[in-house]
C-alpha cells in the first residue's frame, strides 16, 4: 500500500507542473513583442488620473482567479438569456473593465487574436501594483481565455470570515496561511462599502456594542463616514493612512486595532496569523518580496494554456464560430 501510494504521489508531482508548462515570461516576445508595453501604457495613463485603479485591478484579478482560475471569465457580459459572473453579488462593485477593453483594442490593432484577455488582466494588475509603490516583478504569460462564465460558481471569501474559515477557501487553491495573509495585504489600497463592516460599529454579533477589537477612535471616525453620508452605501478606505500606496502600513494598522473589515482585524488577533502580521509590519521589503511571489502564484491558478480555451477578440464576449 505504501509503495503504491508513493508511486501515485510521484506521478502527481510529475504531472501537475505540466499544466503550467506553456506559461513563461516573455511568451509574446515573438508573436507580439510590444504586448506588455501596450498594456503598461494604458495602465499608466489611467493611474495618472485615477490612483484607485490599482485596488480595482487587484480585486478583478483575484475575483477572476478564485472562481474558474485566471481565465478572464469575470470579463464576460451578462445577457438577458445567459447571466455571467458579473451578475453575482460579490462582483457587482468590480470595476476597471473599460481599461481592459482599451488595452485589448490596442492589442488587437497591433497583433490580432494573439494576446489573451486573461494575460491582459494579469499584466495590468502587475503594472498597477508597481505604480502604487508596490514591488516590480515579472509574470509569466501564455494564458488562454475560458469558455464558461457562470454566476453560480462565484464563491469568494467574505469580509466576516475568521482566519480558519478563510484558510478553508484559500487552501484548495494551493495557498498557505502565510500566502493568504500576504494576499490580504492588497487591502493596503482600496475601499470597502459601509454595509460590509457596519455591524462592527454598533451591534457586533448582536451584542448592541461595537466590535471590541476595533480602536474606539476608528469606530467614531467610521460612524461619521457611514452615518452622515447622503450615499446609500458610502465607502471608507481600508488603509486609513496611506490608502493609495501598496505598502506594509496595513499590517501596522491592524496591529493597532485599526482594521476596517473583520477578516483584516482577525489576522492580527488570531494566534495562527498574528506572527506573520507582526513580521510584515516590521519588514517593508520582506512584505514586498512576499507580495510579488504570491501575485505570480495567484496568476497561475488553474490557468488554461496550449490549445485549451480561446483568445477572445472582444474580452466581454466569447468568440463566435467563424
UniProtKB/TrEMBL annotation:
Q: Which GO terms describe its cellular component?
A: extracellular region
Question: Where, by residue number, does substrate bind?
Answer: 157
Q: What is its main location?
A: secreted
Q: Which UniProt keywords apply?
A: Calcium, Disulfide bond, Heme, Hydrogen peroxide, Iron, Metal-binding, Oxidoreductase, Peroxidase, Secreted, Signal
As cofactor, the record names: Ca(2+); heme b
Question: Where is each Plant heme peroxidase family profile domain found?
Answer: 22-319
- From the UniProt record, list the reaction(s) this protein catalyses: 2 a phenolic donor + H2O2 = 2 a phenolic radical donor + 2 H2O
What EC number(s) does the entry state?
Answer: 1.11.1.7
Which residues are recorded as binding heme b? 187
Gene Ontology biological-process annotations: hydrogen peroxide catabolic process; response to oxidative stress
What residues does Ca(2+) 1 bind to? Answer: 64, 67, 69, 71, 73, 85
Q: Where is the signal peptide?
A: 1-21
Which subcellular locations apply to this protein? Answer: Secreted
Residues the record annotates as the site (Transition state stabilizer) are 59
Disulfide-bonded cysteine pairs: these are 32-111, 65-70, 117-315, 194-226
Which residues are the active-site ones? 63
Domain of life of the source: Eukaryota
One Pfam entry for this protein is peroxidase
Q: What top-tier enzyme class does this entry carry? A: oxidoreductase
Offer an example of a GO molecular function term for this protein. lactoperoxidase activity
Binding-site residues, Ca(2+) 2: 239, 242, 247
Instruction: Quote the function comment for this protein.
Output: Removal of H(2)O(2), oxidation of toxic reductants, biosynthesis and degradation of lignin, suberization, auxin catabolism, response to environmental stresses such as wounding, pathogen attack and oxidative stress. These functions might be dependent on each isozyme/isoform in each plant tissue.
By sequence similarity, the record places it as follows: Belongs to the peroxidase family. Ascorbate peroxidase subfamily. Belongs to the peroxidase family. Classical plant (class III) peroxidase subfamily.
Q: What is the official name of this protein in its record? A: Peroxidase
Write down the species: Rhodamnia argentea
